[in-house]
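Known limitations

Files may contain more than one protein. Parsers should not assume a single record per file. Below, a two-record file is shown to illustrate correct handling: read the sequence, read the token line, then continue until end of file.
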Amino acid sequence: MKVVLVTGATGGIGLAICKKFKTEGWIVVGTSRSSNFDSEFVDHYISKDLSNQESPKEIIEDIKNKFNRLDCIVNNAACQICKPIWKMEVNEWDLIYNINVRTIFLFVKYGLELLKNTKGNIVNIGSVHSVVTSNEIAGYASSKSAITGLTRNLAIELGKFGIRVNNICPGAVDTKMLRAGLLRGHAGSGDSDTLVNNLGKSHLLGKVGNVDEIANFVNFVADDINGRFINGANLLIDGGACIKLSTE
């Protein structure tokens, strides 16, 4: 059976990704900071803080010892801190980049041999903020742009081993992170339900995305039956939000 590692496995998108892979017959390894987590969709859970540079190495060692196989890494874990750039502390900036970008590099560094053995693939979870963005989110948005560039370079470097690397960029998806971001005030007033509904009305489809839609797309790209010829791609899944001018 194929083995997938999903980071940020306890969050909305992360858990949905775990569920999708599990229902497709994969062995699912999930990791997150949460110490107490149990789900029928995660076969093996590893509690680690990805801001610690040793964590990716320890996670890969755990997978090697338990399964000696790895077919896909889904780099879903993310840190988002929303504040004006001049108010952001250096340690906050570093935290964003360490979790969002450095972790991808470290999982490649330590997981390469396992991925080479299976000719596996990597799916990075970027963001629509790498294409179009908003106020007071520079750290997160720029880190997601970095992931887009890193994905291209990894696709080039790892292609010689038959390893595919792709980046999926969700738009507005109804998660705790989205709701927390909307409550910072830039999207108007009201509770989180009101703000999510109002945001949905600005989309061509009249709604924001849901976590299962993202999970289905991730699995499609990761599965060699469907995604074998998808490599080095930056794939938007945003309900068409990016295609309409804000002036219209």
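...continuing to the second record:
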Amino acid sequence: MRLFESLAEVPADFGPTAVSIGKFDGVHAGHRRVLAEVRSVAAEAGLASVAVTFDRNPLSVLRPEVCPEPLVSNAQKLELLEATGVDATLMLHFDRAFSEQSPRDFVTSVLSGALNARIVFVGSDFRFGAKGSGTVDTLRELGVELGFEVRLIDSVVAPAGGEQRRASSTWVRELLAEGRVAEAATVLGRAPSIRSVVVGGVQRGREMGYPTANLAHGAEGFIPADGVYAARILIDGTSYGAAVSIGNNPTFEGIADKTVEAHVLDESFDLYGKTVELFFIDYIRPMNKFPDVDSLVAQMHRDEERIRSVLGQTAT
């Protein structure tokens, strides 16, 4: 996949193209269905398939007080977009000046200009330009004038937890905030994940027979609700089963910060300084306070049994 991080980086002879525009936060199942359609149509018409997105949620500039936490970092988003098979991604810098462009300026600079668009895919609620003044009808009028066709994207409905809803980043956030990682995976079309560097901890887990990799604060991705999870951990390109705890471990005094700790099953690694990625498979239990360390260790043994069952990993 070719990556352009500004209009200036798009070669003058690039295109013609089929384009989809969106935040693509999480690159969930709905996004991937749309981009698959873009790729299919582009291939039939001899066009390059392009995802146009932004380096931040526009709400972070326009209404920061209501801007949600992103599901993925920009780096993760680009990796996920590349995995869809699109030919290129244009990631635009969204700032106040960009937000104040007229609808015509956006179309002439980005779509008909840099990308030489022939087909543009948007949702029925698509708005663009200063104060959202551009609508789908505006885009169609400009398309007739400038030589591109506008196609509406059908909503993609996904099942999760016994309900059917339009696949959306909002729904994924709601599920993760409740620890419902398996259900979030059905909307995402993949296991939700976070990525960070392993840092030193207080080594309480090691003392209890469960050494853990402690992830640095500021992890890429949306951290699920506090609790214990069955997970997979990606280390140097290889996946291993893991037990993950999220929270401040109320059994011990003086742990104010929320932490993410992963115990790798059946393996022993020196992971300090390594970047690892955790893929959450299923929720096991909430983060509870135990009367003593022995009670906690006994529960950890039970957790391990359940996690092994979920992952299909027997003890070695």
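Parsers that stop after the first record will miss the second one. For reference, the second record is described as follows. The domain at 191-311 is CATH 2.40.30.30 (Elongation Factor Tu (Ef-tu); domain 3).
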